[in-house]
Write the C-alpha coordinates for this entry.
Amino acid sequence: MKQATLGNGVTCSQLGYGCMSLSPVIYKLDDVNYSDEDALKVLRRAKELGVTHYDSAFAYGLGHNETLLGKWIKEIGPLEREKLCIATKTGIKLSSAEPKVCGDKDFIISEGKKSAERFGSYIDILYLHREGTVSFIPPIDPSVPIEQSMEAMKELISQSVIKGVGLSEASAATIRRAHAVQPITAVQIEYSLWSRDVEEKIIPTCRELGIGIVAYSPLGCGFLTGKFKSRDDFKEGDWRLNNPRFQQHAMEQNAKLVEKIEMMATDKGNGCTTSKLALAWVMAQGSDIVPIPGTSKVANLEKNVDATNFPLSKDEVDELSKIMQPDYVVGARYAAGNLTFEDN
Protein backbone atom coordinates (compact mmCIF):
# COMPACT_ATOMS: atom_id res chain seq x y z
CA MET A 1 0.00 0.00 0.00
CA LYS A 2 1.17 3.53 -0.75
CA GLN A 3 2.36 5.64 2.15
CA ALA A 4 1.07 8.97 3.42
CA THR A 5 3.13 11.56 5.25
CA LEU A 6 1.73 13.36 8.28
CA GLY A 7 3.42 16.13 10.22
CA ASN A 8 6.94 15.85 11.64
CA GLY A 9 7.84 13.28 9.00
CA VAL A 10 5.53 10.56 10.36
CA THR A 11 4.62 8.05 7.64
CA CYS A 12 1.83 5.48 7.56
CA SER A 13 -0.43 3.67 5.12
CA GLN A 14 -2.50 5.95 2.89
CA LEU A 15 -5.63 4.28 4.29
CA GLY A 16 -5.93 3.81 8.04
CA TYR A 17 -8.38 1.97 10.24
CA GLY A 18 -10.73 3.54 12.77
CA CYS A 19 -11.01 1.12 15.66
CA MET A 20 -14.16 2.61 17.19
CA SER A 21 -16.33 -0.11 15.65
CA LEU A 22 -14.53 -2.74 17.72
CA SER A 23 -15.87 -1.38 21.02
CA PRO A 24 -19.21 -0.07 22.23
CA VAL A 25 -19.03 3.72 22.44
CA ILE A 26 -20.90 3.79 25.71
CA TYR A 27 -19.93 4.12 29.32
CA LYS A 28 -20.40 0.53 30.36
CA LEU A 29 -20.10 -2.79 28.56
CA ASP A 30 -23.32 -4.36 29.87
CA ASP A 31 -25.78 -5.98 27.48
CA VAL A 32 -23.40 -5.86 24.52
CA ASN A 33 -23.09 -8.86 22.23
CA TYR A 34 -19.42 -8.45 21.51
CA SER A 35 -16.43 -10.74 20.91
CA ASP A 36 -12.84 -9.66 21.40
CA GLU A 37 -11.69 -12.56 19.25
CA ASP A 38 -13.76 -11.32 16.32
CA ALA A 39 -12.24 -7.88 16.80
CA LEU A 40 -8.72 -9.31 16.83
CA LYS A 41 -9.44 -11.03 13.53
CA VAL A 42 -10.20 -7.65 12.00
CA LEU A 43 -6.96 -6.15 13.33
CA ARG A 44 -4.92 -9.10 12.10
CA ARG A 45 -6.45 -8.88 8.66
CA ALA A 46 -5.93 -5.13 8.47
CA LYS A 47 -2.24 -5.60 9.12
CA GLU A 48 -2.03 -8.35 6.48
CA LEU A 49 -3.56 -5.92 3.99
CA GLY A 50 -0.88 -3.31 4.69
CA VAL A 51 -2.76 -0.99 7.04
CA THR A 52 -0.34 0.61 9.49
CA HIS A 53 -2.38 3.48 10.97
CA TYR A 54 -4.83 2.58 13.78
CA ASP A 55 -7.03 5.10 15.57
CA SER A 56 -8.38 4.45 19.06
CA ALA A 57 -9.64 6.41 22.10
CA PHE A 58 -10.31 5.87 25.78
CA ALA A 59 -13.91 6.92 25.06
CA TYR A 60 -14.39 3.78 22.98
CA GLY A 61 -15.70 1.52 25.73
CA LEU A 62 -13.99 3.21 28.70
CA GLY A 63 -10.56 1.89 27.75
CA HIS A 64 -11.84 -1.35 26.23
CA ASN A 65 -10.61 -0.37 22.76
CA GLU A 66 -7.12 0.50 23.96
CA THR A 67 -6.91 -2.73 25.97
CA LEU A 68 -8.00 -4.70 22.91
CA LEU A 69 -5.24 -3.11 20.81
CA GLY A 70 -2.85 -3.83 23.66
CA LYS A 71 -3.60 -7.55 23.33
CA TRP A 72 -2.92 -7.35 19.60
CA ILE A 73 0.29 -5.35 20.05
CA LYS A 74 1.56 -7.98 22.49
CA GLU A 75 0.64 -10.67 19.99
CA ILE A 76 2.57 -9.16 17.07
CA GLY A 77 5.67 -8.31 19.11
CA PRO A 78 7.91 -5.23 19.38
CA LEU A 79 9.52 -5.44 15.92
CA GLU A 80 6.15 -5.42 14.15
CA ARG A 81 4.87 -2.76 16.54
CA GLU A 82 7.61 -0.40 15.30
CA LYS A 83 6.05 -0.52 11.83
CA LEU A 84 2.70 0.82 13.07
CA CYS A 85 1.32 4.25 13.83
CA ILE A 86 -1.00 3.90 16.83
CA ALA A 87 -3.14 6.88 17.78
CA THR A 88 -5.51 7.50 20.65
CA LYS A 89 -7.28 10.41 22.33
CA THR A 90 -7.59 12.03 25.71
CA GLY A 91 -9.28 15.11 27.14
CA ILE A 92 -12.76 13.88 28.08
CA LYS A 93 -13.75 12.78 31.58
CA LEU A 94 -16.04 9.80 31.18
CA SER A 95 -16.08 8.33 34.65
CA SER A 96 -19.11 10.32 35.76
CA ALA A 97 -22.71 10.22 34.62
CA GLU A 98 -22.18 13.50 32.78
CA PRO A 99 -19.07 13.38 30.53
CA LYS A 100 -17.06 16.60 30.35
CA VAL A 101 -14.15 17.84 28.29
CA CYS A 102 -11.01 18.43 30.32
CA GLY A 103 -7.84 20.11 29.10
CA ASP A 104 -6.22 20.18 32.53
CA LYS A 105 -2.49 19.47 32.40
CA ASP A 106 -2.41 16.92 35.22
CA PHE A 107 -5.43 15.10 33.79
CA ILE A 108 -3.90 14.83 30.32
CA ILE A 109 -0.59 13.54 31.68
CA SER A 110 -2.30 11.01 33.93
CA GLU A 111 -4.69 9.76 31.25
CA GLY A 112 -1.98 9.64 28.58
CA LYS A 113 0.08 7.34 30.78
CA LYS A 114 -2.93 5.13 31.47
CA SER A 115 -3.59 4.80 27.75
CA ALA A 116 0.03 3.79 27.13
CA GLU A 117 -0.27 1.19 29.90
CA ARG A 118 -3.36 -0.28 28.25
CA PHE A 119 -1.50 -0.47 24.93
CA GLY A 120 1.59 -1.86 26.65
CA SER A 121 3.46 0.48 24.35
CA TYR A 122 4.26 4.08 23.56
CA ILE A 123 1.66 6.09 21.62
CA ASP A 124 2.58 7.48 18.21
CA ILE A 125 -0.09 10.22 18.23
CA LEU A 126 -2.07 11.38 21.24
CA TYR A 127 -4.96 13.63 20.26
CA LEU A 128 -6.64 16.15 22.47
CA HIS A 129 -10.11 14.70 22.06
CA ARG A 130 -12.38 17.57 21.16
CA GLU A 131 -15.08 15.88 19.13
CA GLY A 132 -18.43 17.35 20.11
CA THR A 133 -20.45 15.05 17.89
CA VAL A 134 -22.88 14.18 20.64
CA SER A 135 -24.96 16.76 22.44
CA PHE A 136 -23.65 16.14 25.94
CA ILE A 137 -19.96 16.71 25.08
CA PRO A 138 -19.03 20.26 24.06
CA PRO A 139 -16.19 20.56 21.51
CA ILE A 140 -13.69 22.33 23.77
CA ASP A 141 -12.78 22.98 27.40
CA PRO A 142 -13.28 26.75 27.68
CA SER A 143 -11.59 26.90 31.07
CA VAL A 144 -8.11 25.79 29.95
CA PRO A 145 -6.03 27.64 27.32
CA ILE A 146 -4.78 25.32 24.60
CA GLU A 147 -1.19 26.31 25.47
CA GLN A 148 -1.51 24.68 28.89
CA SER A 149 -2.87 21.46 27.39
CA MET A 150 0.00 21.38 24.94
CA GLU A 151 2.53 21.75 27.75
CA ALA A 152 1.11 18.49 29.12
CA MET A 153 1.64 16.87 25.73
CA LYS A 154 5.25 18.11 25.66
CA GLU A 155 5.86 16.51 29.04
CA LEU A 156 4.48 13.19 27.80
CA ILE A 157 6.85 13.38 24.83
CA SER A 158 9.80 14.10 27.14
CA GLN A 159 8.89 11.00 29.15
CA SER A 160 8.67 8.87 25.95
CA VAL A 161 5.02 8.08 26.65
CA ILE A 162 4.01 9.54 23.30
CA LYS A 163 5.89 10.42 20.12
CA GLY A 164 3.57 13.00 18.60
CA VAL A 165 0.58 15.23 19.28
CA GLY A 166 -2.72 15.69 17.55
CA LEU A 167 -5.84 17.83 17.80
CA SER A 168 -9.39 16.77 17.00
CA GLU A 169 -12.01 19.13 15.56
CA ALA A 170 -10.08 22.28 16.53
CA SER A 171 -10.41 25.68 14.88
CA ALA A 172 -7.71 27.13 12.64
CA ALA A 173 -6.77 29.66 15.32
CA THR A 174 -6.48 26.96 18.00
CA ILE A 175 -4.34 24.83 15.69
CA ARG A 176 -1.95 27.74 15.21
CA ARG A 177 -1.68 28.42 18.94
CA ALA A 178 -1.14 24.77 19.76
CA HIS A 179 1.44 24.31 17.00
CA ALA A 180 3.44 27.25 18.37
CA VAL A 181 3.89 25.35 21.64
CA GLN A 182 4.48 21.88 20.21
CA PRO A 183 4.61 20.96 16.49
CA ILE A 184 1.44 19.05 15.64
CA THR A 185 1.64 15.71 13.84
CA ALA A 186 -2.00 15.47 12.77
CA VAL A 187 -5.37 17.12 13.04
CA GLN A 188 -8.34 14.77 12.97
CA ILE A 189 -11.44 16.06 11.23
CA GLU A 190 -14.58 14.74 9.63
CA TYR A 191 -13.91 14.87 5.89
CA SER A 192 -15.70 13.19 3.04
CA LEU A 193 -17.45 13.98 -0.21
CA TRP A 194 -20.43 15.29 1.74
CA SER A 195 -18.61 16.94 4.65
CA ARG A 196 -16.23 19.50 3.15
CA ASP A 197 -16.55 22.59 5.37
CA VAL A 198 -12.96 21.99 6.54
CA GLU A 199 -11.68 22.87 3.07
CA GLU A 200 -12.18 26.56 3.76
CA LYS A 201 -9.85 27.13 6.74
CA ILE A 202 -8.79 23.93 8.53
CA ILE A 203 -7.05 22.06 5.71
CA PRO A 204 -5.23 25.17 4.35
CA THR A 205 -4.00 25.97 7.87
CA CYS A 206 -2.72 22.43 8.37
CA ARG A 207 -0.90 22.50 5.06
CA GLU A 208 0.64 25.88 5.74
CA LEU A 209 2.03 24.52 9.02
CA GLY A 210 3.03 21.10 7.68
CA ILE A 211 0.44 19.21 9.73
CA GLY A 212 -1.07 15.94 8.51
CA ILE A 213 -4.81 15.38 8.24
CA VAL A 214 -6.65 12.28 9.47
CA ALA A 215 -10.17 12.03 8.08
CA TYR A 216 -12.78 10.26 10.17
CA SER A 217 -16.20 9.29 8.76
CA PRO A 218 -14.82 9.33 5.18
CA LEU A 219 -17.95 7.42 4.15
CA GLY A 220 -20.28 10.08 5.49
CA CYS A 221 -21.46 8.13 8.55
CA GLY A 222 -22.24 5.27 6.19
CA PHE A 223 -24.43 7.26 3.80
CA LEU A 224 -21.87 7.19 0.99
CA THR A 225 -21.99 3.39 0.94
CA GLY A 226 -25.38 3.62 -0.76
CA LYS A 227 -26.81 1.28 1.86
CA PHE A 228 -29.18 3.81 3.40
CA LYS A 229 -32.00 5.15 1.23
CA SER A 230 -34.56 6.06 3.90
CA ARG A 231 -34.93 6.28 7.67
CA ASP A 232 -36.48 2.83 7.62
CA ASP A 233 -33.06 1.39 6.77
CA PHE A 234 -31.77 2.23 10.26
CA LYS A 235 -32.35 0.33 13.47
CA GLU A 236 -34.51 2.01 16.05
CA GLY A 237 -32.45 4.33 18.26
CA ASP A 238 -29.62 4.81 15.74
CA TRP A 239 -27.93 8.13 16.67
CA ARG A 240 -27.82 9.21 13.05
CA LEU A 241 -31.59 9.59 12.96
CA ASN A 242 -31.21 12.71 15.12
CA ASN A 243 -29.03 14.45 12.54
CA PRO A 244 -30.46 16.89 9.97
CA ARG A 245 -28.95 15.01 7.02
CA PHE A 246 -30.78 11.86 8.02
CA GLN A 247 -34.24 13.35 8.13
CA GLN A 248 -36.44 11.83 5.44
CA HIS A 249 -36.59 14.82 3.08
CA ALA A 250 -32.83 15.34 3.33
CA MET A 251 -32.12 11.66 2.76
CA GLU A 252 -34.28 11.59 -0.34
CA GLN A 253 -32.39 14.52 -1.85
CA ASN A 254 -28.94 13.31 -0.79
CA ALA A 255 -29.67 9.81 -2.09
CA LYS A 256 -30.01 11.30 -5.57
CA LEU A 257 -26.42 12.50 -5.33
CA VAL A 258 -25.23 9.06 -4.21
CA GLU A 259 -27.05 7.50 -7.18
CA LYS A 260 -24.84 9.55 -9.50
CA ILE A 261 -21.76 8.22 -7.73
CA GLU A 262 -23.15 4.69 -8.09
CA MET A 263 -23.36 5.23 -11.84
CA MET A 264 -19.72 6.36 -11.89
CA ALA A 265 -18.72 3.23 -9.98
CA THR A 266 -20.61 1.03 -12.43
CA ASP A 267 -18.89 2.70 -15.37
CA LYS A 268 -15.48 2.23 -13.74
CA GLY A 269 -16.15 -1.50 -13.35
CA ASN A 270 -13.79 -4.13 -11.90
CA GLY A 271 -15.72 -4.28 -8.65
CA CYS A 272 -15.74 -0.55 -8.00
CA THR A 273 -18.45 0.67 -5.61
CA THR A 274 -19.69 3.97 -4.24
CA SER A 275 -17.73 3.30 -1.04
CA LYS A 276 -14.51 2.74 -2.92
CA LEU A 277 -14.98 5.89 -4.98
CA ALA A 278 -15.72 7.91 -1.84
CA LEU A 279 -12.56 6.65 -0.13
CA ALA A 280 -10.49 7.07 -3.27
CA TRP A 281 -11.69 10.68 -3.53
CA VAL A 282 -10.45 11.47 0.01
CA MET A 283 -7.08 9.84 -0.68
CA ALA A 284 -6.82 11.78 -3.93
CA GLN A 285 -6.97 15.07 -2.02
CA GLY A 286 -3.31 14.71 -1.05
CA SER A 287 -0.60 12.45 0.33
CA ASP A 288 -0.97 14.24 3.67
CA ILE A 289 -4.53 12.96 4.20
CA VAL A 290 -5.31 9.57 5.76
CA PRO A 291 -8.94 8.43 5.85
CA ILE A 292 -9.76 6.04 8.70
CA PRO A 293 -12.96 4.14 7.85
CA GLY A 294 -14.12 1.80 10.56
CA THR A 295 -15.94 -1.52 10.47
CA SER A 296 -16.33 -4.56 12.68
CA LYS A 297 -16.45 -6.99 9.76
CA VAL A 298 -13.46 -8.41 7.88
CA ALA A 299 -15.38 -8.43 4.59
CA ASN A 300 -16.09 -4.70 4.82
CA LEU A 301 -12.49 -4.01 5.81
CA GLU A 302 -11.28 -5.80 2.69
CA LYS A 303 -13.66 -3.75 0.53
CA ASN A 304 -12.42 -0.52 2.11
CA VAL A 305 -8.77 -1.40 1.57
CA ASP A 306 -9.56 -2.31 -2.03
CA ALA A 307 -10.31 1.39 -2.58
CA THR A 308 -6.53 1.86 -2.76
CA ASN A 309 -6.65 -0.14 -6.02
CA PHE A 310 -8.88 2.46 -7.68
CA PRO A 311 -6.75 5.57 -8.20
CA LEU A 312 -8.74 8.42 -9.70
CA SER A 313 -7.82 10.61 -12.61
CA LYS A 314 -8.06 14.37 -12.20
CA ASP A 315 -11.23 14.35 -14.27
CA GLU A 316 -12.79 11.71 -12.02
CA VAL A 317 -11.86 13.66 -8.89
CA ASP A 318 -13.36 16.81 -10.39
CA GLU A 319 -16.52 14.98 -11.43
CA LEU A 320 -17.08 13.56 -7.96
CA SER A 321 -16.47 16.97 -6.43
CA LYS A 322 -19.05 18.48 -8.77
CA ILE A 323 -21.62 15.78 -8.07
CA MET A 324 -21.53 16.42 -4.36
CA GLN A 325 -20.80 20.12 -4.09
CA PRO A 326 -21.37 21.36 -0.53
CA ASP A 327 -24.32 23.48 -1.67
CA TYR A 328 -26.04 20.39 -3.07
CA VAL A 329 -25.99 18.45 0.23
CA VAL A 330 -29.20 18.88 2.20
CA GLY A 331 -28.95 19.27 5.98
CA ALA A 332 -26.20 20.10 8.46
CA ARG A 333 -23.78 17.44 9.72
CA TYR A 334 -25.19 17.54 13.22
CA ALA A 335 -27.94 19.23 15.17
CA ALA A 336 -27.28 22.88 16.01
CA GLY A 337 -24.78 23.26 18.83
CA ASN A 338 -23.49 19.71 18.72
CA LEU A 339 -20.30 20.47 16.83
CA THR A 340 -18.59 23.76 16.22
CA PHE A 341 -15.03 24.89 15.61
CA GLU A 342 -14.30 27.28 18.48
CA ASP A 343 -11.22 28.77 20.10
CA ASN A 344 -10.24 28.54 23.74
The chain has eleven helices and twelve strands. Residues 27-32, 131-138, 337-344 have pLDDT under 50 and may be disordered. The chain has one domain: 3-221+282-311.
